[in-house]
Write the structure tokens for this entry.
Amino acid sequence: MRILKIGQKGFDRYLSGVESRIAEDPLRLEGEVRSILRDVKKRGDEALLRYTQQFDNVRLTLSQLEVKREEVKEARKRIPRDFLETLKKASHRIRRFHQFAKKRWMVKWIEEGIRIEQIVKPLERVGIYVPGGKASYPSTVLMAAIPAKVAGVKEIIITTPPHPEGISPAVLVAADLAGVDRIFRAGGVQAIGALAYGTGSIPKVDKIVGPGNRYVAIAKRLVYGAVDLDMVAGPSEIVIISDGKTPPAFLAADLISQAEHDERALSILITTSEAFAKKVEEEVRRQLLTLKRERIARKSLRQRGAILIVKDLPHAIELANRIAPEHLELSVKNPLRLAKSVKHAGAVFLGPHTPEAIGDYLAGPNHILPTSGTARYASALSVEDFQKKINLMQFSEKALRRFEGDVKRFTEWEGLEGHYRSVQIRMKRQ
């Protein structure tokens, strides 16, 4: 990992590169993605099966596309009992948090002759994309499906890339625990196209959620409008702010925990001590030697990782807000006080004993978070993402008359005569 001190050559250049990372998806990939989407939209299942063989090296028949109920039941027997209990524990904690977070109220405004309301309704059908390339992610299943279930979504569908050895049993069990209705063997751009447009086998959904690689991210962006999206996620990110009091081994492990996701993951430590920075960097090098995903993590840290040395903690927070990271760890003496200055972050982890990994699995809040700087305006996936709001209005004749003149003035200004007539005609009938 590079160590950069404020004022040093390269510090501002690195920071500017991090801030502009939202624009990193290469446009050259867009043409290929569009072509696949068009093909799936036109040819449906035929295209889906062909791309599955081409990209996933798995030949499926139409009858094999959907996972059978018996396969889900069988999956329980294929995972260790202790991990099954862990999945149940995680499922319970995630469900409990999202039940607490669920908005249950209805807006109601009553005045003389007027009734205004806003009601909340769940989406009808939601598609969840579960990645399956470099790792298996049952945690993503729980994080995406449980809030949808809590929201009252009628039908929850999962697509996940097939493998010659089959879908991970943990993914199938997690889907069962979360209340998923249907599971399909489909991945990549073709799966996004199938969910967005529908095929003979996979029904069209109202919204697609879940992370994926660059191709999946581009595909999601291109189908927006045909369906709603949670977000267009980029590579995983972590920013750690430390006052130098946390054991360096702790923070080195946290930096590596994100770097092992993907070669394009972003891992940054911001500290006030150059001596501490060097200790963390040494720990990173030492821990990488025994990591199974060492190649991926090393490349990520070499290309995109950094330790930034600043003058004080307020400056560290200022930089973190500029970066707007997916995960922000405040490993300082009084993290709660420092957290009050956080403006932009997907999730914040307080103190030396709250590693990002606990949020990934068991804390309860959602781990599907805004990346690539979008935490400036976006939030974690929640129950609200699976709901829509409908406004209701009712005016009495007397109440409508009170607003006739106001409507007229608006319509005259905007040149929409027909709008005023729809009010005026009701007044003439009196």
Observations:
- The chain has three domains: 2-22+235-367, 44-229, 398-428.
